[in-house]
Amino acid sequence: MPQASTNKTASSRDIGMDLGTANTLVYARGHGIVLNEPSVVAVKAGTTTALAVIGGGTSEVAVISLGGIVTSRSLRVGGDRLDAAIMDYVRKEHSLLIGERTAEDVKVGIGSAWPVPDRPELETLAFTVRGREKVGGMPKTLSLAATEVRAALDEPVEAIIAAVRTTLEECPPELSGDVMEHGIVLTGGGALLPGLDLRMTSATGIPVFVADSPLDCVALGSGRCVEDLDTPGALPAPAKA
């Protein structure tokens, strides 16, 4: 296991992470620094970067340049809303009540936002769910097709893409070329939804890439902030209130 460097002045007591806000916030004691989720993810980005951080409860979209957020947007649509959309679909279309855990299993098992050429098997997959009849309350088993799940996820996925489009439209013209060149980076658990990058590329005309280890980007960025606490100008600009 990697060991912390002994010459660092920061300790775990110097850094705090607030997970109860609309997005993750990172505080550095004594430095007057408040970093929000997109800033932490892009802490080492040396170019203009467009980010979409799709978490459990919210999604954060931002264009970051020279360590500061140029424009951003937050919406309360994330992985939890995707699960809820599956629950709603099964209830309305099949009169079956399922729980959040089952909906998440369906999403992870056969969910997608767009056909994926490299994974044609997604088009024929099915998932067996067990729930309770809406009328009568009796236990019931149902086979859900992957194409049904994609349809169920359409509304929240479209909301995320709409937020990305709006954020890009608010980007200053002089930075738009950089965004076109470097593309959009997807992070967070929602970035793992197959086909989301392809659908977003189709909707925006801009290349979209899933970050390496998208689930760990915030933690890794926070760790790098600790390393750079005493280096002037090394950290992103503080988040705006």
User: Which CATH class of the domain at 79-146 applies here?
Assistant: Alpha Beta
CATH architecture of the domain at 79-146: Alpha-Beta Complex
Classify the secondary structure makeup into a structural class. Answer: alpha+beta
Helices and strands, in order, run as EEEHEEEHEHEEHHHEHEH
Query: How many DSSP H or I helices?
Result: 8
Secondary structure: number of strands: 11
Radius of gyration: 20 Å
Measured as a percent range, the helix fraction is: 25-40%
CATH homologous superfamily title of the domain at 79-146: ATPase, substrate binding domain, subdomain 4
Q: What is the first-to-last residue Cα distance?
A: 37 Å
Under CATH, the topology of the domain at 79-146 can be stated as Actin, Chain A, domain 4
Portion in beta strands: 15-25%
Task: Return the average pLDDT rounded to an integer.
Answer: 80
Instruction: Name the shape in a single word.
Output: elongated
Low-confidence stretches: 1-13, 17-22
Characterize the largest beta sheet: strand count, sense, and whether it forms a barrel: 5 strands, mixed
- Side by side, the strands of the main sheet go 6-5-4-10-11
